[in-house]
Design goal:
- The complex is a heterodimer of chains A (about 375) and B (about 525).
- Chain A is mainly α and about 375 residues long.
- Helices cover about 75% and strands about 0% of the residues of chain A.
- Chain A starts with a helix and ends in a 12-residue tail after the last helix.
- Chain B is about 30% helix and about 25% strand.
- Chain B has 17 helices and 21 strands.
- In chain B, helix 9 crosses helix 17 and helix 14 packs parallel to helix 15.
- Classes of the chains: A mainly alpha (about 375), B alpha/beta (about 525).
Chain lengths: ~375, ~525
């Protein structure tokens, strides 16, 4: 295949993949703009202020990065489970457990250098998240219990379990006599390096981007990825190839939960330096939105997480400049997802890509 | 073309002149109904009539067009051409709601009940209350109980539906239809979910309803039930009416030839290969269905190297369970299965042991969203040359796909075309290519030609023959007798989870097969395969 023939095709492919998210975002911004008008504001001014706050300076770019990091990781966690046909909506709880496990290792005065202590604590975070999802994974794979219910319910158990663990009086890893429910400060050696001095941007972002690349390679270029995609594409056909589906479900869920755990570890070790009560404003749930906007593509998650991260980073600047509530950001996020799952838009892309293949959809037999 | 050779035709011509039910025209007459889905003609000029007081059985294999015809009658689909007449008047039925108001009731295979409402609440659901907006249940209850009593449809009106047995839910569905004034009742495979005792009760109810002058359409593919309860039988095959006759005149062999096609051209390409080493051995194998009812009952079967053993039978008589047991996908509850001396569990993961062409290619055989190249390595992706050290080698996978596309004449834009864009025949070739590429010792093919056009049938059967000639043991499960007789070296017949007997693929023995498909035991000297 010569280069000229490859290029337009690749461009075409990328174009069709971008149609749904880009149109969805544009539509969401338009509708939200109407809301701003209704509230007698100027949408252009508001979005301008938001853009300024998200990308107007090194500092604001760093803030965008900080806001992007946790939802990038939870987005990857959710995306990988979606690709395997599993709906892990428990990233929130797994994030808390991952944070707790990482904290235990990170506060321990091990006397180790950073390049050992940091990976060790991150590993603990991964294990914490994976262990938390192991319960729903077992129930789904071997007992047929819907993972949607179990993972969601365990979120609440997880959040309150952490509240107990760091209780200042009774909690085993709570800081004694503190006025807040919080753990002790983590060791210097266990802190993620800051990327741009004078800002809070930490290496968690690089970890997320690296993981996205790794997952993209995993899905496309490894046997494990092939199995997971097969399972997501058609579990019955997977079974008819002799594949042990239960095992693959468990593997997919453990990877997913582990990555959500890393999101929690990253927040503790890169930003807050302690484990706090209720420290996540719903990063685990935002991960679902991030994964949906990216159509569960790991590299796409980088882009969609950055978009939502930028919205959040710009929200404060917008409120200061125009007086419009930061909660507008949540409306934009929700509208975006509504447009993403809006059928006709996807249908349009499907028919276009099908026509490109020179065939009619459904083959020759669409009969009952 | 539909050939209708019964009284109804003449009656249509001169209403009231033929003696039987003289003044009443047909309750229903569907005339030259045609319905297409893309290239597939689901109903091809189908004419179908029901008289008042008649139980009219609609017989045919899956995909013969029964459901489509009934969906048109019930307003769920619109015909491309043709007419529906009710009581001699043309009716346009645009929705189930209109069908109900015209006196048509349908009991679907899957019940349309709200589990946590009571039986009575389900009956009044969708019927305007006598005192809106209040829910008035006293009169409806009285009416319901009266209907139940008159028709031997015992039901407790105050029990939530989820607590009712399947049989009771079915009675409730019938009551629901009667409550809405159904004069024409469609029962879509009503016996599939019932125990034998309940089937008897249902038949009594059907006769009671018919005696009141209602018309009943009884959909089934079980010949014995159709013979037991109906007055008249219409057989559909590939969307066409292949015959319509009074039940009294219908013999099993006539019906089975109508169902499988009359002009059986049994062209044998290669002579039977000499029996050789046994590859598949099954001894007294039993298993359960998904519904935990007996699936296979003590099945013994041997398939040797270089032979095709055909499995005939009406759909749903254990063929599916047979295939899944052999592939190690369904646990057996008794007996022994060996493929080259190995147990079936994990056989699919061995190289060159077992090829499996599943009966439902979309659900079981392909990942629709994967491209052709990926679907061709669905089983072999993890092995050399397609994989090394856990990483896929896309160049190998792709060039392999190009080879297979050429070798098997798979018509597609290229290896990167999504497989769900391919036609049915080409999808099936992808599966056949994948399942035979490693020269399996045993090839199990379940309904490999279902839904394919003539050309594709030919090429798929030739590919299967080629496997036999190479020396594979082949088990070919099909409901198409023509096809089985054309390629098999011997044919076993299944009924109710048992093997009724074995016959050589001799056209003269077709009648015997028809009998055995209905469950009649025939003494056949065979290779140790006998009716249990």
């Amino acid at each position: 295949m010569d280069f000229a023939a490859t290029l337009p095709r690749l461009v075409r492919r990328v174009f069709y993949r971008l149609v749904v998210p880009v149109v969805s975002i544009a539509a969401a911004l338009s509708v939200s703009g109407l809301l701003i008008v209704v509230a007698s504001g100027n949408p252009l001014e508001a979005y301008g202020a938001m853009l300024q706050g998200a990308a107007g300076s090194i500092g604001s770019l760093a803030t965008t990065g900080v806001r992007t990091t946790p939802i990038l990781l939870t987005g990857l966690a959710v995306a990988i489970s979606f690709r395997a046909g599993v709906f892990n909506v428990g990233a929130e709880g797994q994030l808390y457990l991952g944070a707790a496990f990482a904290t235990v290792v990170a506060v321990a005065p091990l006397g180790l250098p950073g390049f050992i202590h940091v990976p060790l604590a991150l590993l603990a975070g991964f294990v914490g998240g994976a262990l938390w999802v192991a319960i729903p994974a077992y129930l789904r794979a071997y007992r047929g219990v819907s993972e949607v219910v179990t993972t969601l319910m365990l979120n609440f158990v997880g959040i309150y379990l952490i509240s107990y663990l760091i209780d200042p009086i009774t909690g085993p890893i709570g800081e004694r006599n503190a006025s807040y429910a919080q753990s002790a400060l983590i060791q210097e050696a266990a802190r993620l390096p800051v990327l741009i001095s004078g800002t809070s941007l930490h290496a968690g972002l690089l970890m997320g981007i690296g993981l996205a690349v790794a997952l993209q390679i995993l899905l496309r270029y490894t046997g494990l990825g092939f199995r997971l995609r097969m399972l997501g594409g058609n579990p019955t056909a997977a079974r008819f190839t002799g594949m042990n589906s239960s095992r693959q479900i468990v593997i997919a869920m453990l990877i997913s939960g582990g990555i959500a755990g890393l999101a929690g570890a990253g927040e503790v070790m890169g930003l807050r330096m302690r484990l706090y009560d209720h420290f996540s404003p719903g990063y685990g749930y935002d991960g679902i939105a991030v994964a949906l906007l990216a159509n569960s593509s790991p590299l796409g998650v980088i882009i969609s997480a950055s978009f939502f991260g930028a919205l959040r980073a710009g929200a404060n600047a917008m409120q200061q400049a125009t007086g419009i509530e930061t909660s507008l950001v949540l409306i934009i996020q929700a509208l975006t997802i509504l447009f993403v799952i809006f059928g006709p838009l996807r249908g349009w892309v499907a028919t276009r890509t099908t026509r490109r293949a020179g065939l009619t959809p459904g083959g020759s037999e669409s009969a009952p | 073309m539909g050939r209708i050779g019964w009284r109804g035709n003449q009656e249509k011509a001169g209403v009231g002149s033929t003696g039987q039910q003289s003044s009443a025209p047909e309750l229903l007459r569907m005339e030259r109904i045609t319905k297409r889905f893309g290239d597939l003609v689901a109903n091809d000029e189908v004419t179908f009539e029901v008289l008042p007081g008649e139980i009219h059985a609609l017989l045919g294999e899956n995909g013969a067009g029964k459901s489509t015809l009934m969906k048109i009658l019930y307003g769920l689909q619109q015909p491309d051409s043709g007419q529906v007449n009710l009581d001699g008047r043309t009716a346009t039925i645009r929705s189930p709601h209109e069908a109900v108001s015209l006196g048509i009731g349908m009991v679907h295979q899957k019940f349309m009940l709200v589990p946590n409402l009571t039986a009575l609440e389900n009956v009044v659901l969708g019927v305007t209350s006598p005192r809106p907006p209040l829910l008035e249940l006293r009169d409806p209850r009285r009416r319901l109980m009266k209907l139940a009593e008159e028709h031997e449809l015992a039901i407790d009106p105050d029990v939530p539906v989820w607590q009712l047995s399947v049989g009771a839910q079915q009675r409730l569905e019938i009551l629901k239809a009667l409550y809405r004034g159904a004069r024409l009742l469609i029962l879509d495979e009503p016996t599939a979910v019932l125990a034998p005792v309940e089937v008897g009760q249902l038949f009594r109810v059907m006769r009671l309803l018919a005696a009141e002058g209602r018309g009943i359409v009884f959909i089934s593919h079980k010949l014995s039930e159709v013979k037991a309860v109906s007055d008249r039988i219409t057989v559909l095959r590939l969307g066409r009416v292949t015959g319509s006759l009074p039940t009294a005149e219908a013999s099993p062999s006539i019906l089975s030839s109508m169902m499988v096609g009359r002009d059986v051209s049994l062209e044998r390409v290669s002579p039977p290969v000499q029996g050789d080493a046994p590859i598949l051995e099954m001894r007294d194998v039993s298993c359960l269905t998904d519904r935990r009812t007996p699936g296979l009952a003590s099945v013994s079967l041997t398939v040797r190297r270089g032979e095709i053993v055909g499995v005939a039978g009406v759909d749903g008589n254990g063929q599916r369970e047979l295939v899944e047991c052999i592939a190690g996908l369904r646990p057996i509850t008794g007996g022994r299965i060996a493929i080259q001396g190995r147990p079936p569990k994990g056989a699919l993961r061995k190289i060159g042991l077992l090829g499996l062409i599943p009966e439902d290619r979309h659900e079981q055989g392909l990942v629709g969203d994967f491209d052709v190249a990926e679907n061709l390595v669905l089983r072999a992706y993890g092995r050399r040359p397609f994989s090394a050290f856990g990483f896929l080698r896309w160049n190998q996978i792709r060039s392999h796909a190009v080879e297979q596309i050429n070798a098997y004449d798979i018509r597609c834009p290229g290896p990167e075309a999504k497989v769900h864009h391919l036609s049915g025949g080409n999808q099936q070739k992808v599966i056949v290519a994948r399942e035979t590429q490693e020269d399996p010792a045993l090839l199990v093919a379940a309904q490999p030609t279902r839904g394919l056009d003539v050309g594709a049938v030919e090429s798929v059967l030739n590919l299967i023959r080629g496997q036999r000639d190479r020396g594979a043991a082949v088990l070919l499960v099909s409901t198409e007798l023509t096809e089985l007789f054309a390629v098999s070296d011997r044919v076993v017949v299944m009924h109710a989870g048992q093997i009724m007997g074995t016959v050589p693929p001799d056209p003269a023995r077709l009648g015997e097969v028809g009998e055995m498909m209905m469950g009649h035991t025939i003494q056949v000297a065979s290779d140790g395969v006998t009716a249990a």
